[in-house]
Every structure is written in structure tokens, then in C-alpha cells.
Amino acid sequence: MEVLEVAENLQLIPIIEAHATDLYKVVDKNRTYLRQWLPWLDQQKSTLDSQAFARAAHQRNAGGEGFIQVIFYQGRLCGVSGYNFIDHSNRWGEIGYWIDQQHQGKGIVTRSVAAQVTHGFTRLNLNRISISVATGNSASRAVPERLGFSFEGILRESEWLYDGYVDHALYARLKSDPPPSSGLHAEHADNALNTDTNTVPQPSS
């Protein structure tokens, strides 16, 4: 699997088990912050849980069922972004992402997702890419909106989030769609974000 060189100080690296220790540290440090919109925090109780996730994600990558990457900014792991699911028969993939709270506001997720969209259309031969985000998570919804995705509707009670269901906003982009009207591309996407916490790649998601 390819490393995506998004910018001089920003890389997307296919996840492997060796990332588990640093990944767990970031998750544990951001536990309260991430819990606002991500349903899997209670499943991550130790480095062993992150190892299990990394191992399963790596196997999905190797089998072509996903393309899950860790985000490295200035040489440090700060989040996860990638294709949770790839349907090769229908040439469709779904992207999820999250980032360390201290790294928000730098455009890291927007640039990362832009690079993964380009990779999906040009290297993975996808025709459709979707992003599903809790309706109340306005900052994460801003990512597909910046990148020229079309809003396709509301998925009612799509996800159980600890004590109740949340609706999801569904966004999608086709290979034939025009580029974003803002002219935003991976190398120029530097708009600030408040949070970037879409449903992340986890074996259960």
C-alpha cells in the first residue's frame, strides 16, 4: 500500500501493528474530546486494543477491503483517515477520519481527505466516494462540503452513540463530478477546523 505525501510535513501511512502504541496514546489523551462523536472509545482500553485494531485494519488493507492510514504531521502520529470500506464490484468507497484535538485548526484532515479522494479516483479506480457524518458534527461536515461532495440526505438514527441514536448526513462525490468550486486541492487546503471526528475506521464500524 502506498504512502501518500500530502505536503512536506504531512504524510498518510498505511496502518501497521507497529503504530499501535502511539495510536493508543493519542486516543487516550483525546478520550473525552473524541467521545463527543465517536462510538468506539469504550472499546479502546489498552495498547492491546489498539494493536488488535491496527492488525485488523492492516488485514483489510492487504485484502483490498479498505485503505486505512495513520496521519503523520511533522513526524508525529496525530490521527487516522482512510477508506473504512471499499466495494470493488460497484467501485465505491467510504471515508472516515479523526484527529488529535491539539492538531485541529491546521487543515490537516481536509488536506488528508482531499489526497485520499484523488487517490481513490486515480489509483483505486473508484467511481463513487461517500462520507457519512453525524448531523450535529458541523466541523466534520465541513470537510466534504469543502471538497465538492454533494449532500444526498439524512440517514435517520444511523448510529448508536453511547446513550442514543444519532442521524447521519450523507455526502458523496462521483468521479465525473466537477472539482470543488473553491479550487481547494490537497496541497492548498489550509482552512481551520474545530473538530475532525467522523466515524473512524474500526473493525466494528
Explain what the structure shows.
The protein is built from five helices and eight strands; from the N terminus they run ββαααβββαβαββ. It is an alpha+beta fold and 205 residues long. It has one domain (4-174): 3-Layer(aba) Sandwich (Aminopeptidase), CATH 3.40.630. The longest helix is centred in the N-terminal third of the chain and has 16 residues, at 47-62. The chain is globular, with a radius of gyration of 15 Å. 42% of the residues are buried.
Shape designation = globular
Approximately how much helix is present in the residues? 25-40%
As a percent range, the share of strand residues is 25-35%
Kindly name the structural category. Answer: alpha+beta
- What's the number of structural domains? 1
Query: Strand tally, please?
Result: 8
Superfamily at the CATH H level? Gcn5-related N-acetyltransferase (GNAT)
Put simply, the count of helices is 5
CATH class: Alpha Beta
H/E element order: EEHHHEEEHEHEE
Largest sheet: 8 strands, mixed
Short summary of the structure?
The protein is α+β, with helices and mostly antiparallel strands and 205 residues long.
